[in-house]
Amino acid sequence: MIVAPVLSIYLYMLYICLNWYPGARYVCFCGYVVGMFGLLFVRTAGDCVLMRPSDSSKPSYVARVEKIEADSRGANVRVHVRWYYRPEESIGGRRQFHGSKEVFLSDHSDIQSADTIEGKCTVHSFKSYTKLDAVGNDDFFCRFEYNSSTGAFNPDRVAVYCKCEMPYNPDDLMVQCEGCSDWFHPNCIDMTAEEAKRLDHFYCHNCSSEDQKKLHNSHVSTRHADAKVETKRRRR
Ligand SMILES: *[C@@H]1O[C@H](CO)[C@@H](O)[C@H](O)[C@H]1NC(C)=O
Ligand SMILES: *[C@@H]1O[C@H](CO)[C@@H](O)[C@H](O)[C@H]1NC(C)=O
């Protein structure tokens, strides 16, 4: 909470003004140090951070800060974290529909020294991730919670698209059929990505055989996530 550092700075200033009360000195100074630390590194519990892995060849761990604590001297700042798992760290492993920046919020918590924090990162909802104009190194997204003992996901079913009936991978280009509004991977409809990008209108095989003559002025959308997030729900 931003309140903590602000309050401790306030208290420290109060101490400077009222330094006739010696007991306040210690408390306020420690509060100030902890507060400043909190302000510099993790401003709010619930913030997401990258943490240095013990094996430096591995990518940084992604974690959500649940609580920050320090000992009475304001030293040894420790953070309570809840880990995000990368798909390859899950029991089922990485699957084709998992995005490169996808992480799962696990039920696995830990206490870590604050100095393993490398920096802040952002774990977006699936929807807001698909709306990002540019994805930075520290942008991730999460659409599943993950039970680390059973490997189960929540939700256990999500919308699927295309002939391949796969959940949407935001890294992949898809084209939308103007007839049925389903989305398709160029690969699955015998097209290259380049050809798909050049399309003005697209009707999938089923729709074009049904409404061959229909012609609309609307343009085909590519990589437009809104509709995809809300439409069909079939089993994964
Ligand atoms: C994970 O699954 C086990 C077994 O079904 C269950 O007992 C446990 O509560 C689950 N954990 C969470 C956080 O849902
Ligand atoms: C196309 O039609 C067939 C037969 O009705 C159906 O099984 C299939 O799911 C449809 N394909 C799509 C992509 O809607």
Automatic annotation (TrEMBL):
* Keywords per UniProt: Membrane, Metal-binding, Transmembrane, Transmembrane helix, Zinc, Zinc-finger
Q: Which Gene3D superfamilies does its entry note?
A: 2.30.30.490, Zinc/RING finger domain, C3HC4 (zinc finger)
Which residue ranges run through the membrane?
20-42
InterPro entries the record matches? BAH_dom, BAH_sf, Zinc_finger_PHD-type_CS, Znf_FYVE_PHD, Znf_PHD, Znf_PHD-finger, Znf_RING/FYVE/PHD
Source species, domain of life:
Eukaryota
KW Cytoplasm (keyword) present: no
Q: Which PANTHER family match?
A: OS08G0421900 PROTEIN
Q: What is this protein called?
A: Chromatin remodeling protein SHL isoform X1
Organism of origin is Sesamum indicum
